[in-house]
# Entry
Amino acid sequence: MRTSVVLAVLLATLIAALALHAQAPMPRCTTVDPATGKIGDEVTVTGENLDKANVAELRLAPSTGGNEVKVVISEQTATTIKFKVPTAVKPGRHALVTVSKRIPRDLEIEQPVKLTIE
# Structure
């Protein structure tokens, strides 16, 4: 009886460790350049874990509320994402939102960097 309890605890510990190790790293945006732009301008976001495995979509979310606008990513690496400001974006300050396609649901993360559209 005691041996089976010890084995069960060891197995549960091993499964938990594997689950933690298997989790994908979280995307993190650290800068946006330029910080202020206009429709059609190319913007470069830098950070970490920004590759396609971790970021499936990038959206601009107005700070005043309202609909988020999905951007078309033109270039993407582990440390950068490039896109052009879409015509659907309204002037104002916008948060960048990364979206990862993960099971069981999408993971949306509002990033700490902002983009101001003139």
